[in-house]
Amino acid sequence: MNSQVFQTPIEYLKGVGVSRADVLKKELQIFNFEDLLRHFPFKYIDRTRFYKVRDINADMPYVQMLARLTQKEIIGEKHTKRLVAQAHDDTGAIELVWFQGVKWIEKALIPGKVYVLFGKPGFFNGKAQMAHPEMELYSTEVQQRKGNLTLQPAYSSTEKLKQFSLDSKGIQKLVAILLEQQLKDIHENLPLYLINRFKLIDLANAYRNIHFPEDATKLTEAIHRLKFEELFFLQFRLLRNKLLHTQKFKGNIFGTVGELFNQFYHEKLPFPLTNAQKRVLKEIRLDTQRGVQMNRLLQGDVGSGKTVVALMSMLIAIDNGFQACIMAPTEILANQHYQTIKELVGDDFIEVGLLTGSTPQKARKVLHEKLENGQLKILIGTHALIEDKVQYKNLGFVVIDEQHRFGVEQRARLWRKNIIPPHILVMTATPIPRTLAMTLYGDLDISIIDELPAGRKPIQTVHYYDTQRLRMFGFMKQEIAKGRQVYVVYPLIQESEKLDLKNLMDGIEVMSREFPLPDYRLSIVHGKMKAADKQVEMDRFIKGETQIMVATTVIEVGVNVPNASIMIIENSERFGLSQLHQLRGRVGRGAEQSFCILMSSHKLSRDGKIRLDTMVKTNNGFEIAETDLQLRGPGNIEGTQQSGVLDLKVANIATDQELLISVRKCVEGIFEKDPQLTLPENQILHQTLQVKGQGLSWNKIS
Ligand code: ADP
Ligand code: MG
């Protein structure tokens, strides 16, 4: 908000007072005028007219319609039981669904009669739908009723608030008082040229209409304006930080591509690089010559070869007299990186170290010394490697492998190790959608490996129901007879550890019966085992002594076993999409055709079915990430919760993608043309930013 008035504590609003202010603070986090102004209605009730099926869309508020009921039917059993009815008017048909009170509602509905339907319109599979509509028989009485002729806002409230007469209506009254008193103090915060170019309504109008819409069109315009503004200042802050960052932080200049890089490239690299890998290396090469700190995000699908790109970038750093490190989120992954890199560089090339929480004190001391005297060139580890005790001689390049995202704060801690901060390359484990990357990593440059190494056969994926288990066994036997190995994975969900273990034990029993000694051998790995025992079991599988690896999650099997070409995921409906994709990525690493079998019960939720169908349909991680975002919304994507970046009130990264992309372009354009914001028409942005430091949600972003 652009006027100090809005920072006034809420108790000073007429009609509030001390005790009401208290509950408003506790229950709704409304501390001042601005918070109340930004406590938007969660729905609107439109009793102004009857809508036609043809005219409704999913963005509409609660509306009323007139339609003739033609059919009603209870379908599904127990958990999936629902009442589905069909209705139509002269423009089309609409489906009505109830999940609760099914029997009772079913009895009351009379096919053939015309009803007033009232509810929130939606679409499912392209068909108009309304869930839990209120139903009222159409009658002359209804016809003559003179209703409230505006869109009514409905505000979220709580039992506690209601004790203070602050139900939806009570809050509405306060907002009305606030608007009447302070509307004149809401000043425009966007430059006029943007208002014109994007055909936005002004800010005061937007606030008035989001609370008390004059009509549906005005409401849409108000929401659009506030979404635009929210995304605009989000991107504005991100890109401004990026700009300030390049001005503030010098970077080491990697002037040459030297001996180590060339020797590795010509003598050690076991395969030709893909074009995408070459392109990304070039991008990194350019970044590290500019004298500005690199901050780059590397995205690529599972198996696209990010590790080798990271390694070759580190070799350039070492060639220029610097050290490098890789920071992984877990010990297992750190271990895995260590093994992979040791294998790629071989002996007697450069010294590589591993530092994790379980590195013994003695070995730790040796590592510290070698780091300080510069003998150790690459250090791989977990958080342990940013502990204050760890001192590098000359850290020049940092790779952050972000299975679970490191925050900005942790990234910054690495910089403090040096006067000139090291270049930073952030790698994501699986792709994230473009719009999400734009926001979560909006202050980074982005590189994408969009090509898999040649000769990879796409993994074939099928979905079997538990009743098709025999077919699965048959398939396993056939592939094992050809010399292949199989992973069988069970979900591990922390809340019910006991149940998970039982699942696994039952599974092991079934597997041992179906695949008996001496023809078959099983490896078993789960979380309750000692680390040493796990290692033994994994080694047996790696060496090919066992053909089947039964495990709770394959993260625990973390190793690359190219001969393992079948991934079976039990209870696959209980896994998230990105986890399924990660798991599937464990196969398809060798020359053989690989397969993934998703086992599930018949009891599938709608989202569960979409997840499995998506896995069957595509191997493309970017596509999968996109579907995941659509299904779960931005707040539930792994790693986004703590970030605060997605604390959006009006806009939604999943559903407002188009708007976000055009806003991003617009902000980029502004900084390109006027990086210091000196043009007169941009002065307003300076002012907005200055006031914005105080209470607004978007100050959390930087
Ligand atoms: P991710 O991007 O999932 O981290 P990795 O870096 O682990 O992928 O690479 C997956 C596998 O592909 C590794 O075994 C790696 O050696 C191999 N690989 C990487 N690049 C190429 C390439 N250009 N040609 C052939 N194989 C490659
Ligand atoms: Mg990897």
Molecular structure report:
It is built from 24 helices and 22 strands. Strands 1, 2, 3, 4, 5, 6, 7, 8 and 9 form a nine-stranded mixed beta sheet that branches. A seven-stranded parallel beta sheet has the order 12-13-11-14-15-10-16, with helices on both faces. It is an alpha/beta fold and 702 residues long. It has four domains: 49-149, OB fold (Dihydrolipoamide Acetyltransferase, E2P), CATH 2.40.50; 188-248 and 656-702, no CATH class; 259-449, Rossmann fold (3-Layer(aba) Sandwich), CATH 3.40.50; 460-618, P-loop containing nucleotide triphosphate hydrolases (Rossmann fold, 3-Layer(aba) Sandwich). The model is unreliable at 693-702 (pLDDT under 50). Strand 6 and strand 7 (127-131) form a beta hairpin. The site of magnesium ion has 2 residues, from helix 12.
Number of strands: 22
Return the domain count.
Answer: 4
What would the principal axes of the Cα set say about the shape?
Answer: globular
* Ligand catalogue: adenosine-5'-diphosphate, magnesium ion
Proportion in helices: 25-40%
CATH class of the largest domain: Alpha Beta
Number of helices: 24
Structural class, judged by helices and strands? alpha/beta
What CATH calls the topology of the largest domain is: Rossmann fold
The CATH homologous superfamily of the largest domain is named P-loop containing nucleotide triphosphate hydrolases
* Largest sheet features: 9 strands, mixed
- Name the poorly predicted regions: 693-702
What's the architecture of the largest domain in CATH terms?
3-Layer(aba) Sandwich
Computed Rg? 30 Å
The fraction of residues assigned to DSSP E strands is 15-25%
